[in-house]
């Protein structure tokens, strides 16, 4: 069986059917295709906390949402606690959206979107973990059960929706996906989990589809992945005990694969060689390679291969060329033949992993929780190119644009890849 300091002021004032931003942008979680691929020719190979750093800015509050970049602007969310400690977990939270100039790191705007009394979250989580989406006209932000909102790229709030209620476990996590007029996200809480779509222009609910019935834990945190199959768009959304695919316009369930006992699913799927690669989450994750052209329950008919050893609970898979790469939470990295599941290599990288890996400028980037990035050459043989240490804790996934990487740490945000003007 086979993831120079400049302070930010707190101003009060794929091929992917979802993507409409420029190819060189990084406009959603895991980039334009939602699968960790950056369409760039150059990317930094070596750095540390001082060298090859264009800028570092301090980010107010606390959040593990990943940065997104479009049209020379960078967007991210954060939660600023009220009271003496702006990074406290257990105080009322101000949920904010920040916009920076990507070249200089200068804050362009910093807008409050929601406020809420503190709700319990996992100590590894934050009150601002889902990653924004920017499509060139609007910025969409999601804070789990605390609400979803749309803003203009100049920071004006277009709409807010706080009506999608459910009981979260450990806080929010999964990011939304944008497909046509549908902003889709999972609401997999303690009970009665469902997937929902909001109208991108108004924020009104378009559809809501309950998850299939199952025993055991019901909660999960995965991000939907839109894919094209035989000329039709479907949205793959892993959840507890099942992964399901939906019609993005109606919410109709198209197919499902069962993995009883799988829950707290975090990794976003990837799609390559006609297969969807899905991790089943805690406690004993399994990687599934699924053909997405079936209907109904296809557990017995459309699973091409599975793997149980070294499968991640947090970091998403990465498909490049003929291979699929994963890195488990304990740093065990593996490379499989995408079509057959044959394991080419398995190596231990240093540290623990939560961030999803990326592919940029012909290289694989694996960022651990200590801020160390291991860079590999793609292929069926293990070839390490560099290891770079920022010396700051991180769980957010990196973003890439031409010539630069953006990495969010526990208290700051880096642009790596050569000095730029401030």
Structure commentary:
The protein has 422 residues and is mainly beta. It has one domain: 7 Propeller (Methylamine Dehydrogenase, Chain H), CATH 2.130.10. It contains no helices and 35 strands. The protein has strands spanning 5-7, 37-38, 53-58, 68-70, 73-81, 93-101, 107-116, 133-134, 138-142, 148-152, 157-161, 177-179, 182-187, 194-199, 205-210, 225-229, 232-238, 242-246, 253-258, 270-272, 275-279, 287-290, 296-297, 303-307, 318-320, 323-327, 332-337, 343-348, 358-360, 363-367, 372-377, 383-389, 399-401, 404-408, 412-416. A five-stranded mixed beta sheet has the order 1-3-35-34-33, with no helix packed on it. The chain has a five-stranded mixed beta sheet with strand order 2-29-30-31-32, with no helix packed on it. Strand 30 (363-367) and strand 31 form a beta hairpin.
How many helices? The count is: 0
- Spans of at least 5 consecutive residues whose pLDDT stays below 50 are 1-21
Please give the CATH architecture.
Answer: 7 Propeller
Give the domain tally. Answer: 1
Q: What's the N-to-C terminus distance?
A: 52 Å
- The top level CATH class name: Mainly Beta
Strand percentage, roughly? 35-45%
The tally of beta strands, per DSSP, is: 35
Strand order of the largest sheet: 1-3-35-34-33
- Classified in CATH, the superfamily is YVTN repeat-like/Quinoprotein amine dehydrogenase
Largest sheet data: 5 strands, mixed
The pLDDT mean sits at 92
What coarse outline follows from CA principal-axis ratios?
globular
CATH topology, by name, is Methylamine Dehydrogenase, Chain H
Question: Which structural category fits the helices and strands?
Answer: mainly beta
This entry's quaternary arrangement is single chain
Radius of gyration: 20 Å
> How helical, in percent, are the residues?
under 10%
């Amino acid at each position: 069986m086979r993831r120079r300091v400049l302070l930010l002021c707190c101003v009060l004032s794929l091929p992917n059917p979802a993507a409409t931003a420029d190819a060189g942008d990084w406009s959603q979680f895991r980039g334009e295709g939602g699968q960790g691929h950056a369409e760039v020719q150059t990317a930094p190979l070596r750095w540390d906390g001082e060298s090859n750093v264009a800028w570092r800015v301090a980010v107010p509050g606390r959040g593990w949402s990943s940065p997104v970049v479009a049209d020379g602007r960078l967007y991210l969310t954060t939660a600023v606690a009220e009271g003496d400690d702006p990074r406290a977990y257990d105080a009322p939270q101000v949920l904010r959206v920040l916009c920076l100039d990507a070249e200089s790191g200068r804050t362009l705007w910093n807008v409050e979107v929601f406020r809420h009394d503190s709700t319990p979250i996992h100590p590894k989580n934050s009150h601002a973990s889902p990653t924004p989406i920017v499509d060139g006209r609007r910025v969409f932000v999601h804070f789990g059960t605390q609400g979803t909102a749309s803003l203009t790229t100049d920071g004006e709030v277009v709409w807010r929706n706080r009506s999608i209620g459910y009981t979260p476990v450990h806080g929010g996590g999964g990011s939304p996906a944008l497909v046509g007029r549908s902003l889709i996200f999972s609401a997999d809480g303690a009970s009665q989990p469902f997937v929902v779509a909001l109208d991108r222009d108004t924020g009104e609910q378009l559809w809501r589809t309950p998850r299939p019935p199952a025993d055991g834990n019901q909660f999960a945190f995965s991000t939907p992945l839109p894919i094209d199959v035989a000329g039709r768009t479907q949205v793959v959304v892993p959840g507890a005990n099942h992964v399901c695919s939906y019609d993005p316009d109606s919410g109709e369930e198209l197919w499902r694969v069962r993995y009883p006992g799988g829950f707290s699913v975090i990794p976003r799927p990837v799609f390559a060689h006609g297969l969807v690669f899905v991790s089943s989450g805690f406690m004993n994750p399994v990687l599934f390679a699924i053909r997405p052209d079936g209907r109904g329950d296809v557990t017995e008919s459309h699973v091409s291969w599975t793997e149980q050893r070294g499968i991640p609970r947090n970091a998403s898979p990465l498909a490049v060329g003929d291979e699929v790469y994963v890195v488990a939470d304990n740093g065990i990295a593996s490379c499989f033949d995408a079509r057959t599941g044959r394991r080419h290599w398995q190596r231990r990288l240093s540290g623990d992993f939560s961030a999803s890996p990326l592919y940029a400028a012909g290289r694989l980037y694996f960022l651990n929780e200590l801020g160390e990035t291991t860079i590999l050459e793609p292929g069926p043989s293990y070839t390490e190119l560099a290891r770079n240490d920022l010396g700051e804790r991180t769980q957010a996934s990196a973003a890439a644009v031409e010539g630069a990487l953006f990495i969010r740490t526990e208290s700051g945000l880096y642009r790596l890849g050569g000095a730029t003007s401030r």
